[in-house]
Design brief:
- The chain is mostly helical.
- 78% of the residues lie in helices and 0% in strands.
- Helix 3 crosses helix 12 and helix 13 packs across helix 14.
- The longest helix is centred in the N-terminal third of the chain and has 56 residues.
């Protein structure tokens, strides 16, 4: 019996060794894969930093990239770097706020598009699926045609756009809460509200004068020119609150992709997570839209690009979508400002012109494997 036991014992030990070896190889491969993904994200961030310096140099004033970086660093380290008064005015007060606003707006559109595609289980979902942009545009139309606004001065259009965008979002969320916060309910409610506010905006345009119509049309095309240092306070606060909240639900979103029932069996309240993430994303999108107007395709394309390059893990996919969205938006804005200078093409038009061909490529190419595999 002893002779029969020892071979079985050696076989079991050999089996355990093989299993441990495979587990170690799997862990090693996972670490290698994660290292490549983090390296890629670091590369895109470095590319954004370089793009900021290069984009600032584009314009009638002759600047070098080193001068741009020196001017920016001089604001934080005045004892180390010197700054010319003219460069301070052009770089810090005029050009850099627009680019920084584009980075924040693109990042917000990217992460909100990623979250909405996850909770709605719809690859065509974007920050405008719920008609938030239509509500904001109607708020601008009310202010332009009737002069009815929550506040006056430079925040007249911005406050109205934010208020009606949030009104639209709250209406959809309330309707979904009464009917049941399923992905189908949110999508259908968003489509209905989108058509409603689009029709109301067209009605306002019918009664508008030429000047009022020009204001409504310009805002509806999307632009980053509204960003200035005096308007960044609320922007920073909203981002500081909403972004960590969305990222904290990344693991729940991973579980929800396999189905609501499966997620519930693992302890995730799918409807509650869906409502919370949609409310937070709506606040973030409404904040961005009230400054930028209608800028489409960034929130749609950036998550798809990130998913192709990073994979479907939302712990990495959410920040990757935001980083790629920021890069796409500032590059599109740079092209819009300089392609037929001195005429500046609205940013929303340029993102659509650049985004549509890529989106059609995604549709025709079909589902692809993860880039790193």
């Amino acid at each position: 019996m002893t002779g029969g036991y020892e071979p079985r014992s050696r076989a079991a030990q050999h089996h355990r060794e093989l299993r441990n070896k495979k587990l170690e190889e799997t862990r090693r491969e996972h670490r290698r894969l994660m290292s490549r993904k983090f390296t890629f994200l670091a590369f895109i961030i470095a590319l954004i930093i370089f793009a900021v310096g290069y984009i600032v140099t584009l314009g009638p004033l002759d600047l070098s990239i080193l001068q741009v970086y020196e001017t920016l660093l001089a604001r934080f380290f005045p004892s180390v770097f010197s700054m010319d008064d003219v460069l301070e005015q052009v770089v810090w007060n005029i050009r850099f706020p627009r680019i920084l606003g584009g980075i924040f707006a693109g990042f917000g559109f990217g992460i909100c598009g990623c979250v909405m595609q996850a909770v709605l289980k719809n690859p065509l979902a974007s920050p405008f699926t719920l008609g938030i942009s239509s509500g904001a545009h109607f708020g601008v139309a009310i202010a332009a045609v009737f002069g009815v606004a929550l506040v006056g001065g430079p925040f007249l259009l911005i406050a109205n756009a934010f208020a009606f965008a949030m009104l639209c979002s709250l209406f959809i969320v309330s309707l979904a809460a009464l009917k049941g916060a399923t992905s189908e309910t949110l999508i259908l409610a968003g489509i209905a509200v989108n058509y409603l506010f689009s029709s109301l905006s067209q009605l306002m345009a019918y009664f508008a004068t030429d000047e009022q119509l020009r204001l409504m049309t310009t805002w509806g095309m999307g632009d980053l020119s509204a960003f200035s240092w005096s308007k960044f306070g609320l922007f920073f606060v909203i981002f500081a609150v909403c972004t960590p909240l969305l990222w904290s639900k990344a693991q729940d979103l991973n579980l929800m992709t396999i189905g609501d029932d499966s997620a519930k069996s693992l302890g995730v309240e799918a409807n509650r997570v869906r409502m919370l993430t949609m409310i937070v994303a709506s606040i973030l999108v409404a904040t961005i839209v009230c400054f930028t107007g209608t800028i489409g395709f960034v929130g749609l394309v950036a998550p798809h690009m990130a998913r192709m390059l990073i994979g479907a893990d939302h712990r990495l996919l959410i920040p990757a979508s935001g980083i790629l969205g920021a890069f796409l938006l500032i590059c599109s804005d740079a092209v819009a400002m300089n392609i037929i200078g001195p005429t500046v093409i609205p940013t929303g038009i340029m993102t659509a012109l650049l985004g549509v061909p890529f989106f059609l490529y995604l549709v025709l190419k079909g589902k692809r494997k993860e880039f790193w595999q």
